Amino acid sequence: MNEIDMDEVYASDVDWKATAENMQQEINRLRALVPDPTLPPQAALIEIVELDGPEFNPSQPGTGYVKPNQVRINGVPLAIPRDEAIEVHRVLINHGGEYPVGEDVLQVTLTLFARRVVMGPDQAAQG
Description:
Largest sheet: 3 strands, antiparallel
Structural class: alpha+beta
Order of helices and strands: HHEEEEE
Number of strands: 5
Shape: extended
Strand order of the largest sheet: 1-2-3
């Protein structure tokens, strides 16, 4: 195995501090994708969007419409069957449970394609 000349490494034009910062940002981004099993369940961010559609100006109603062609949950695009409906229901939480009293949330019903479905005990709980 060849030895690495550290003087040569440090003398190179690579900005090691910037490289380390970029690596840390990527690590943080990847960690955000993995749910923390110690936290209570959270509501998901669901985006129902139109990619590459005509300009829509929400301040001027009637200027256009949105024809959704992509659904994302927590930023991850999902495969949705073409002819399946996406239903959005308004729900008002008044019991003071996990959400503050009176906070509005939505319930979304949609059909997804799944590559794999796992049902059973949580692997983390098995130690």
